[in-house]
C-alpha cells in the first residue's frame, strides 16, 4: 500500500488554505500514469490513518445485497443453507464471523426499414458437457466429426431420455445453437440428432460461418429482426441464394438484395405475422416461468457465474436478471431471477453449482424479472490484517505501539462515521489492472472513432495467455478470422466482436458492427466509465478550490430526504436547486447535500467555477461539442447527479490480535498474499452503503492509503 495522501481542503476545525489545494492537485498530477489517476487523492477528513492488508483471504471481503425492503438477501435464505461454498461444516460459523464475535452469519456487500440485425450469443454460451454430461457431449463431438464427409449421411445419435419438457427444450436449444448443422428430434422422452440437409445445401452457396449464423438467426426467431449475408456482387449467385431461401424458408422469411457503398448483399427478415397469435393459458404459463433465488458466489465475477449457470441450464445469460454486479475477489450474496427455468429444475442443479463456488438458496417462483438497480444498497463485512502506522515499513508494533495504533483506528473510524467519505467511483469502474482502462475506450466511442475504440479494447495484457495472444495477433495482422480461432471460447465479448469483424471487415463500419454485436449494457459501460472518471476529477477539483461548504452556484436536491444514489439520480433537472448567495451566507445547505453531475445531455451543470471547469475538461478531450449520443451504436447518455459525499450506515468495528482471531485457518478461500504476521492487529469492519457506493473507497478514507 502506498503512503498516506494529503486531504483536500480543511477539516471543520482547521482553516482552509490554498496550499492544501495545491498539495492535492500536485498529488493528482503525479499519479497520471497509474490506476490512482481515476481515484484522486483528496480526502474529506484530516486524520492520520494507518496501513494494512485487505483481501488476504477471500472471506475477508463479504458483500450482501440489501433489497428494496431494507433486508439483507441472505437472511431469508438462512434456514435453507449454511452459507457459501466455503462456509464451515456442521453449522460452524465461518472464520470472519468468529472474529467479529457475531452469533450468526451477517454478510455484505440501427434500425432500417427492413428490420434490425440481432446479435446472437456466441457458441461458447452453452457448455454441452454440463447440459448433457461429459460422456454424451464427447460422443456428440465424435458424431459431428463423422459428418464432415462430403457425402450426405442419414446417421443418427441418441442423446438420451429427458422426462422434463423444459429440460428437453433447453437441450434442443443448446445443441442447435452449438451445432446449427444438426437437427434435433424428440421421440418422447428421447432426443436424437442427425445432419440438417438444408444446412448442407446452404453451406454450398455461402460461407460456413454465414450458414451457421443464418441458422442461429432462424432458431432465435426474434420478431422484427433481420440477418444480412456478406457482400455478393454476382447476380446469378444471389438469385440462387434467394431461390433456396424462398423454397426452404419462404413461409418464415422474406429476402431482398440491397446496395450499400458500391456492394450488394442479401438481407433476410422474419415475416410479420400480423397481430400476434393469442397464446393459450398453458403456453403463457410455460413461457412466463420466473424463478428467483439468492446466489452466494466465491471468487467469481457475477457475469462469469451467470454464464456457467446458463450453460448448465441450457438457457441464455440474458435470461438471468439481477439488481447489481458484485465484486469478484469476495464472498457475495445477491438476488437473481432466471426465466424459463422452474424452481424444481434449478434445485436439481444446485449440487453441480456448488462445485464451481456457487450456492443457491431461497429458490421460489415469482411473477417477473428483477430490474437493474432495484436494491437499497449493500452490507459489507471486511477484515483488514497486519495493521501498522504510516511510515512503519514492515515493522509490526507491539505493546505501546498497539495502544497508539488502536487510537489511530478509533479516530479514523469515528471521523468517517460522522463525516462520511468522498463518493468516488472505485478502480473497478475503470478496469483496474488492465493495460488499457475502460474510460479510454469510452472516450473513443464518444468521439465515434470506432476503429480506435476496437484497437484499445483489444490491447493485450503482458504475458502469453491465450487471450493476450489472440488480441496481439489481431492488432498485428488485422485478421479477425485467425484471431477468432485463437480466442478462448470463454471470452464471449471478444469472440462476438471478432465474428462481426470477420463478417463486416475491420474498417469503421465493421468496427461499428463489432460494437453492435455486444448487448447494450456492455456497450454503454465504456462511455459510462469515461464519464465516471470526469466525475472523480470534478469532485477533487471542487473540494480543492471551493472548500468544504455549500457555495453559491452549487447544485443540491430540492426535496429533503430523497435517496441520492446514482440510480435514483437520473432525474428531471427541475428537482435540482442552485444555491444562492443568501443560502451560502446563511449556511442553509451542507457539503453532504451538494451534488455534481455525471456528464450527459440532460444534466444541469453548476453555476459557479465548476461549470467552467466541466466545459474546459471535456474540451481537453475533444468533447466540447459532444451530444453524448452515439447514434450508430444506439447509445444515449442523459447523465445523472451523484452526491459529493457518501455516509456509511450502521458502522461498527473491532480490533484484536491476529494470533487469537485466525480461527485455525478455517474454510473460505486460500492465502492470497503470503504468510500471516504473528502478533499483529486485525481490524474487522461492518457497515452499509447505498447502491453504487464503493466499500474500497470508504476504507481508503479510513486508512488514508491507496488499496
Automatic annotation (TrEMBL):
It catalyses: a uridine in mRNA = a pseudouridine in mRNA. Keywords: Isomerase, mRNA processing. Residues 420-647 form the TRUD domain. GO terms for molecular function: pseudouridine synthase activity; RNA binding. Residues 82-104 are annotated as: Disordered. It comes from the Eukaryota. GO terms for cellular component: nucleus. Residues 95-104 have a biased composition (Basic and acidic residues). The keyword Repressor does not apply. Gene3D superfamilies: TruD, catalytic domain. SUPFAM superfamilies: Pseudouridine synthase. One of its GO terms (biological process) is mRNA processing. Pfam families: PUS7L_N (PF23943), R3H_PUS7L (PF25094), TruD (PF01142). Pseudouridine synthase that catalyzes pseudouridylation of mRNAs. Belongs to the pseudouridine synthase TruD family. This is Pseudouridylate synthase PUS7L. It comes from Lates japonicus. The lineage of its organism: Eukaryota, Metazoa, Chordata, Craniata, Vertebrata.
